[in-house]
Amino acid sequence: MSDSDSDVPRDPVTHRPLNPRRILFEPVIGRVVDALGGYEAGVYRMGDEASGCLEDLKKLWRKDDDDD
Fold first, then answer.
1. Which domain holds residue 55?
2. CA neighbours within 13 Å on the CB side: how many for 7?
3. In a domain, 3, yes or no
């Protein structure tokens, strides 16, 4: 492995180089998904902002800023 290869972020499981877009979007999408809700005492509870979170995900996937 050359020095330049060691600078490339890699998937911790597969050790393949990560896509730069994934590096950029993964934290953002992860926070939005976490805000959708989660399990509390074995019961799923929808987050207070679930509807807004879904709209945010839709915008990210469609790559637009328009509300519809």
1. 19-36+49-62
2. 3
3. no
Tracing tokens 């799923």 back to the chain, one arrives at 44
Q: How far is CA 42 from CA 39, 45, 65, in A?
A: 6, 9, 36
What are the structure tokens assigned to 17, written together?
A: 């180089």
- At 18-57, the pLDDT tens digits run 888 888 888 888 888 888 888 889 998 988 888 888 888 8
**Residue 10 falls within a domain, yes or no?**
no
7 is a domain residue:
no
**pLDDT-derived band of residue 5, with 50, 70 and 90 as boundaries?**
low
Task: Output the pLDDT for position 66.
Answer: 56
Looking at the 3D structure of the chain, how many domains does it have?
Answer: 1
